[in-house]
Amino acid sequence: MEKGSSKLQRPPNDAISRVRFAPESNNLLVSSWDCTLSLYDANNSCLRNRFSSGFPILDCCFESETVALSVGSDCFVHRYDFHMGNESTLGNHDDLAICVEYSKETCQAISGGLDNKLRFWDTRMGYGCVGHLQIADAQVECMSLIGLHLTVAAGVSVHMYDLRSLNDPIQIRESCSIYHKKCIRTFPNGQGYILGSVEGQVELEFFAMSETSQANRYAFRCHPKSINGRHHLVAVNGIDLHPSYNTFITGDNEGYAIAWDGKSRRRLYELEG
Predict the structure, then answer these.
(1) Alpha carbon distance 81, 207 (integer Å)
(2) pTM
(3) Could you tell me if 155 and 142 are in contact, meaning their C-beta atoms sit under 8 angstroms apart?
(4) pLDDT per residue over 93-105, tens digit each?
(5) What is the rounded end-to-end Cα distance, in angstroms, of the chain?
(6) How many whole angstroms separate alpha carbon 214 and alpha carbon 205?
(7) HEC-encoded secondary structure of 186-237
(8) Tens digit of pLDDT for each residue in 222-266?
(9) How far apart are CA 62 and CA 145, in angstroms?
């Protein structure tokens, strides 16, 4: 392990699908293909609580410091109260539910699925969908929420929505990659997003259509590997951004995390898991 790093006790037994820090603490939420959702105290590297859903969990997020949401291969959206130790179900998609976010501004959980739909759930009401959006001819692959702005990757397009008016997207952008998108993260300042795909490509895009903003957009293949002297690409499975600096980290499915300076377009360092 690198200096300053620590290893979590009792990690999941299969691939991790998502890792999220709590809104106000160093509690760490981890979803996994071993059907578990785990809450860790990252300061002490210890497991605080764990739920098993019986199905692989594909994404998770915090609703509050002690309440979390998950979606998975059972097509359902689940809600977990770690303080009370109980679980409830908000509802389901018609196909795999693969991504979930929570909006504190609207008090809604937002889930996306392979049924080409975004579904909205008022967590104060319990079970029942309070609305949905149909994404025409494209499966929802990943999404990111900053404030009231939701960014959704579906097929070869990226849709940007304002949660206050969901009739039509604010913008629709075409991705330069035809391959499946694994992850998308909106910039902390809400001015753009970073998109990662299965063939190792990362795209940095800006919402503003000014000449200056569009001149700063670019794409690159960030995880090339060499096997037996032949070049091949590794999927970008995760992206996260620093809240203050122009830096971000990409993670691949071979256990590497690479930090990048988005402004200077250069690699900073690489960590091996």
Answers:
(1) 36
(2) 0.88
(3) no
(4) 999 999 999 999 9
(5) 8
(6) 8
(7) ECCCCCEEEEEECCCEEEEEECCCCHHHHHCCEEEECCEEEECCEEEECCEE
(8) 766 655 656 667 888 889 998 778 899 998 877 788 899 888 888
(9) 12
